[in-house]
Write a sequence for this structure.
């Protein structure tokens, strides 16, 4: 079953669904790019690894591989004056994917593609601040940055300043922003309303090389269908975060017309 909405489905933003959708969208963009990039360029998915339940720390991955864990003692250990209480359970690592476009046989990073995640917007030194530090690193290194923000909840974190977006684009619910490397770097963006089809986005490469268009809407529709989100999402409950009253009325009309809910 395809998504009932013409563009972004606001029910995909929920905490249970979005991490799954996020990872699949990154991989779909990677696949589309590698079918279209000119010779000499390649798109590779990378992952940041988070190891605590609040997703507020990004460790050195090498420290957490199983090969680096200390050997378990061969038998029970007795510590003088202490009573054994139990074992500590280490939290499962969570991977957050993003994309890099490399040229010159993988030796030079040209463009980074980020689908904004819930943890990117989380307050804290290693949440939002860490992500914004990575933005600065891209800019200082002359790397193009493409950011796709399909989350209404949380503060604005993309590199294109919110004031400029509002001034140029007016009201929007989601957006795509591009920081184009140069001296100085320049901003480009597209605003997306709830009822809008997701756009085709030009992914920039090196200067003088045409951008590579990526059409986001078919990706969302295919992911929705193949992941069976229709069986997962309860459209009778409001989405998280909730919609404005007029948006909820519009969404109910769409869902009713598609037979997803009853009037």
């Amino acid at each position: 079953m395809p998504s009932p909405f013409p563009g972004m489905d606001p029910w995909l933003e929920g905490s249970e669904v979005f991490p799954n959708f996020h990872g699949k969208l990154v991989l779909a963009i990677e696949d589309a790019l590698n079918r279209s990039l000119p010779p000499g360029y390649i798109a590779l998915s990378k992952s940041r690894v988070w190891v605590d339940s609040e997703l507020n720390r990004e460790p050195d991955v090498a420290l957490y591989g199983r090969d680096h864990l200390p050997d378990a003692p061969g038998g029970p250990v007795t510590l003088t004056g202490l009573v054994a209480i139990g074992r500590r359970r280490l939290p499962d690592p969570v991977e957050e994917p993003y994309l890099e476009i490399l040229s010159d046989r993988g030796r030079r990073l040209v463009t980074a593609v980020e689908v904004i995640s819930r943890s990117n917007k989380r307050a804290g030194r290693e949440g939002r601040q860490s992500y914004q530090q990575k933005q600065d690193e891209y800019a200082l290194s002359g790397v193009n940055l493409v950011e796709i923000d399909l989350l209404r909840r949380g503060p604005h974190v993309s590199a294109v300043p919110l004031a400029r977006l509002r001034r140029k684009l007016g009201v929007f619910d989601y957006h795509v922003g591009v920081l184009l490397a140069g001296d100085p770097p320049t901003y480009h963006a597209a605003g997306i309303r709830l009822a809008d089809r997701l756009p085709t986005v030009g992914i920039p490469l090196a200067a003088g090389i045409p951008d590579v268009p990526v059409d986001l809407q078919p990706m969302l529709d295919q992911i929705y269908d193949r992941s069976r989100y229709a069986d997962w999402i309860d459209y009778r409950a409001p989405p998280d975060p909730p919609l404005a009253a007029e948006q909820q009325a519009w969404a109910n009309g769409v869902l009713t017309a598609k037979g997803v809910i009853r009037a």
Q: What stands out?
A: The chain has six helices and eight strands. The chain has one domain: 10-60+90-237. Helices lie at 18-36, 128-140, 162-169, 216-226, 229-232, 245-257. Residues 56 and 126 are 5 Å apart (CA to CA).
